[in-house]
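We give its fold:
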Amino acid sequence: MTKAVKSVVIGTAGHIDHGKTTLVRALTGVDTDRLPEEKRRGITVDLGFASLEAEAADDSPLRISFVDVPGHKLFIRNMLAGAGCIDGVLLVISAEEGVKPQTEEHLAICSLLGIRRGLTVITKVDAVSPGRLEEVRSEIGAFLKGTFLDGDHASILPVSAQTGEGLDELRRELSALAMKSTINNPDHLPRLPLDRAFVMKGFGTVVTGTLLSGEFHVGESLALEPGGRTVRVRGMQTHNRAEDHASSSSRVALNLGGIEVSEASRGHTLVAQKTLTAVTTIDVEATLLPGSGGLKHRSRVHFHAFTSETLATISLYGYGSAEPGTQRFMRLRLHKPVVLVPGDHFVLRQCSPATTIGGGRVLDAQPLPNLRKGKCLTWLEALNHAALEEQLRLRVARRGTAALTMRMLMAETGLTQEALHRLTEPLVSSNRLLRIPEDMLLTDEAFVSATEGVLSRLETETRSSGLSRSELKDQAGLSKEVFDFLLEKLVRERRLQLQDALVYASGSDPQIPGPDLKSLSAITAAYESAGLTAPSTSEVATRLNLKDDDMRRLMTLLLRDKILVKIGTDGLFLHQRALETLRGRMRELRGQTLEVASFKQMTGLSRKYAIPLLEYLDRQRVTRKNGDLRLVL
C-alpha cells in the first residue's frame, strides 16, 4: 500500500546576503531568484519557491516546500506575504556577519505569526576560521534565548552551500522537523491565500499559494474573495506535478477558469463556495514589541495577514494608549477586506518609519454592530480564555433570542459544518444549547428569556379572545423559526393553549365556547390575509356561514382586543398588522407630501378605501392634511 505524502512548507528568514537563496539552491537544485531585477542586483526582491523530496524515518514520503523570502528591509512586506503561510522557519545567519537587524526583525515577525518550529543555520562556514565560527555560534545562542528556536526546541547547524559541508545533516533535520510539524486541523474550511497570479500560454490564468486547510479538487467551483467571484479549477499542480486534489500544507498552482489574470492578485483568497467572506472589522488580542513606539486610539498602521496587506485604523478597548511590551484588546477597521477567522495571526507595522511594532491573533472576525464597547470587551475576555466548545456557546449566546444558524457559525469560526455539529452535540445533549429547525442554535438562557417575553404578553393582556400567532410573534420580536419552535415546545409542556390561529396563556379561561373560538380564528385569518383590501363584515359572515348577530358579537371581541381596527364610519375594518405595515411604509416617506392619487397608487386601493384610510392616518398623526395634499410626519 502506497503511503500518503506528507507536505510541509518551510520559509527562510534572515538578513540580506546571508545566503538564504544559495542555501535553498544547494538543497533543492532550484534557483528561487526568478525575476530579472533579482538576477541583475544579486538580491532576492520577491518570494521564490522550491521543493525537496525526502523520506521520513519510517520510509514515508515527504515533500518539503520552501518559500524563500527577501532579506532587505525595503522588501519586508514581501517577506511577510511569504511568512504568513509557513509551517516552520529556516533562520539563516552568516558566519561572517552574525546576527543583524533583519535577523532580529524576521525572528520577531515569525514569533508574532505564531510559528513555533524551525531550525537555525549558520551559513558560509567555509569562509571563516573555527574560532570565528564558535564566536558566532555563541552569539546566536544568546540571541535565541527565550525564543521558540531556543534550546531543545531547535538545532543550530553550521553549513556551507559552496563545499556541501553540513547539508546532509540539514536535510535529516528538515525531515525530522517535517514529521513534527502539525498538519492544519481538518475541521477547518479550505482556504488558499494567493501569492502569485500570472498567465501561462495555452492554459490561461494560473494562481499559486499555500493551502492553509481543507482540500481542493480539479473540477471544483470556488469563490475568490473579496467579491465572491465564482471560478472553476481546470487543472492543478504541486511542484510541477499534475494532481487531481491538494491537501492542507501543500504548495499548489491552480489553473482557473472564469476569471482574467487582472482580476486575481496577491492578497486575494480562494475559499469553498458559500463558506467564508472577506471582512473589514475584527476584534483582536495584540502584543506590542518592546522598544516599539506604542499605539494610541485611532492610530493607523499597516496590517499584514497571510498574503494580504492593508492599512488599518485601531480602536483600543480600555483606557490609555497601548504601551510597548504589553498586550491589549483592539478593534481593527481594515481599509481593504481580508478573509480572516478566529486564531489567525497578523503583524502590525508602523506607517512611518516603516518598522514592525507588534502583532497578535484574531479573536472575532464577525463582531456585532452597535454592541456597547464595555459589553463587547467582557465578551472578548470570556472568549479569550474559553475552551473551543464554550467559545461556540458564547457565540450563540451573544445573539440572544435571535439564535444563530450553523452556516453563520461556520462563517464566524472557519470550522466545517461537520465539525460544528460534533463540537456542539455535547452542549445540545446537556440542554445548554437547543437545536431548532433550519439548523439553528439557541442557548437555554435565551429560550427562558423568549419564553418569559411570550408568556408575559399573554398574561398582561388577559384577552379572553387570545392573541393571533402573527401578532404575538411580532410583539415578542422573534424570528419565525424561533417563535414556532418556542410555541410548539410550550404547547407540548401545556404552558400555552393553541386554538387554530389564536394563542392563550395556560390556565386562562377564555369563557368562549369552542365554536366561537373557531369563528374568531377564521375571522382573524380572513382580515389578516386581506391586508388593506379588507372585505366587509357581511362578506366574511357569508363566507363563514355566520348569523349577523353572531358576527357583530365576535367583531366586538376582536375590536376590543385590538386585533381589528375600525377605519371611518362606513364599516371598514383592518387587521392591526396591515396597519403596522402601512405605518412602516409611511415612515420611509417622512417629510414628503402625498396626493390621494399617489396614495392610491402606492397602496393599490380604490378611492372608497383610500379616503377613510388617509383620514385615519390624519387622526393617528401619521399624516397632516394641507389642502389637497398630505404631509407625512
Q: What stands out?
A: The mean pLDDT is 84.
